[in-house]
Every structure is written in C-alpha cells, then in structure tokens.
Amino acid sequence: MTDTGAYRLVAIGASWGGLDVLRDILRDLPAELDAAVVIAQHRSPDSHPTAFRDLLGAVTHLKVREASDKDAVRPGTVYIAAPDYHLLIDSGSVSLSTDEPVLYARPSIDVLFETAAESYRDRCIGVVLTGANDDGSRGLARVVELGGRAIVQDPETAQRDEMPRAALRAAPTARVIPVAEIAPLLVELCGLARVAV
Amino acid sequence: MAVQVEHQPSSAEGQLETETLELHLLLEGIYRQYGFDFREYAPVSLKRRVWRRVQAERAGTIAGLLALVLHDAEVMERLLLDLSINVTSMFRDPTFYAAFREQVVPALRTYPFTRIWVAGCSTGEEVYSLSILLQEEGIYDRTRIYATDINETVLGRAREGVFPLEKMQEYTENYIRAGGKRSFSEYYLAKYEGALFDRALTDNVVWAPHNLVQDRSFNTFNVILCRNVLIYFDRALQTRVHQLFYDSLERLGILALGHKESIRFTGLESAYQELNMQEKLYRKVQ
Q: Which CATH number belongs to the domain containing residue B116 in this structure?
C-alpha cells in the first residue's frame, strides 16, 4: 500500500446535496495540501456560470477553478468539472469531452474516477459523497483495483444515501466516515507541501 | 534456446500497460492501412471511444479490434464514426449564440459578403443553428457557410437535415434562450423519421470533407467556428490546428471556441483580442 503522505490526486464525486458537503470538506483543507483535488458534481448546464465555483472558493484556502481543457493538474488547487462536459484525467492534465452522458450524467463521476485511477494509480484517492443514483461506484472500484484509496461518506449521514451505498457495494474495502473526518484523513494521506518561508 | 517471459500482464496495472501498447498499435495500424491519423488525439477520451467499438464488435481487446480493422474496411468505417462524431446539440450554450448575435453580427453587416467556416461540423447541429440565426438577422443571403468534417458519412447525415424528434423540446428551449425571434417549429417538419429541417437553411452551405489533422487551409474566412472539437486533440495537435485557423482568418476575423477552450499556450495569444471572454469569442488583430 502507498505510504501515507504520498497520494497526489483526490477525485471527489457528489450529486444531490453535494454542495454543502463539499463546502464542509474544502473548508478544512489547508492551502499547502500536497495534492490536487478534482470534483465531479452533477448540476444543470443552465446554472449560473460562476456561482458554484464562487460558493466553494469562498470557504477554502485552496485555489478553485472550473477546469478548462488541458489545464495542468497542480497541488493545492481544486478543479471543478464544468456542467455538460466530462472531465477526464490524462497524465498530469485534464481533458474534456462532450461525449454522450454516462448513466444520464455529464460530468460522469465514473469517467472522472476511472481516468484518475488509470493516470495516478496508487497515488489516487476516490471520495464518494451524497447522491441519489449510483454514479461513481464503478469508478471507485477501479480506483481500488489500481492500488488507490477509496473513501465513502457514511450513508447514515448523507442527505441522499443511494450513491454512497452503491459505492460501498462496488468497493467494500472503502473507508466509511462522516464528512467531518474526510478532510483530516485527506491531509494525512496526501501530506503537506513544504512551503519556502 | 529457452527463453523466459518475464513480464506478467496479469495485474490490473500490467493490463493497463498492455492496453496502452494496444492503443498505440491500433492507431499506427489505422494510419498505415487507411491513412487516417488519430495518433495525436487526446488519449483518454480516444480510448473510451475505442472501447465502445471493441464491445460493439465483440472484439474482446483493443488488439482484437486491430485485427478486425486491418482485414475489414467496414469495421474501420464503423470505428471512424465512433472516433469522429462529436456529440452536440442545436444552440448548445444558448448564451454563445446570444453573444454572437450581439457582438459578431453587427460587424458582419458591414461586409458585402461573409465566409464562415464551421470546422468539424459533425452532424450539423451548429450549422443549422447558425443558418437560422443569420437568416433572422437578415444577412444569410450574403453569407456562405463552409461546413467541414473528416467523416463523409457524417457530412451526408448533416446535409439531410433530419434530427431526432425527441430533441426538439430541448432545442426549442435553447433557441429561445439564444434570442430566437420566431417560433422554432417553423424551421422543421415533424415527419415519421424525425424533424426535417427547412432546405432553405442549407442553400448557402457548402458541405465538404476536410481533415483538420492532415489537410491545409482552403480559403480565408471572416468567422471560424470550432467549438468542442479541439478538446479531442492533444496539445501539440491543438497548436498546429490553431495555426491553421490563424492562417485562414481574415484580419479582424472572428474565432469562436467552446466554453472551456482557449487560445492559451498556442503561441497566438497576442494575435487575438478577446471579444467575449465567457463565450470564447476572439478577434484576430494582427
């Protein structure tokens, strides 16, 4: 198993009820987090172009941006999947696609997780949060298969428990914890970058 | 002499390495047998499309698909469709078309004649959207739209102008939000096989095969529209295609990209002025 502190990519999938939970997690992550965070949150393409990014950016020390095609994946930065695009990870950068929705979702959490896992392998963490479907379960299984870590929000604490429960069925070895414990665990697994003073 | 096979592709990681090799061989095989060059496409999205074809052909593996492709041109034809159809919709991103009306059309009005290139037009949704918009703005008659795509089958479909009826509700909503001035249903006839769009919308459209990877420019244009096509290319290829667009644009010509694309890292940043940052409209200034 990968050493604690060696994980470099945190892929998070959220659906129904995701915004509040994402804010709780990002609030507790330090700017020096030595990993990049990529988020696929299901949302409407008609939503306000910057509102979601701003709501997350307002509570965290990390840089938050909506991912543009071929953005380099850098530590200390949060990349959000734009609505109506799939977000894929390709050896250190992001790649977008407008291919058909997968299980009605675009962005698809499975697509993000599978490509994140194949690119970062045993340095990848997949986190499945609240949601009312089963997107992310196949992707989370792939993260585990390639040596990464799986974390699932405790279904008992989730606003909608379908997505975390499906993730647990697909990746039974996942750590199941309440939201408040997710950020501390991510810090432990990813470590902090040494910052020049 | 006995040889030992040391590499064991049994683990998930080993399989991944093998798969990467298979994909490389497939693209090389396609290029050498058929001349289509997908070697500089963005590998992650390409791989997902290739796997869809592997499953549809029951080829088992990418290497299995390679064998089929090399010996059966019809399989190649189907794979080409998978690799070259870009999914889009009419008036996708309505705010883009609203901005086009407000910020680009006034400039086009000052020209006696306008040439527009829709590069990578796929099944034509954007071409019809643009034709409708230009017609409503009263400048369609002095516009020629060059709609190109790598795939002639796709172009044929685009030319027919038949789109799924079940999409019309979504397209109508997009059309309204894009500032449409009429009733969207005036533009098509609901037929058994789908929504057949008004033939007049294609009167000034030239449909032509063109491969952004391998072909040169064929004219100069006042507007080049290429939205969500370059995301399927790797960065080196993107840069080359951007040079092709730059060379094909008239001075003060407009380049329109997808919402999450930009001219960053192309070396052409200073050649364009941002006309609308949100909608990714650029004007060539030098």
A: 3.40.50.150
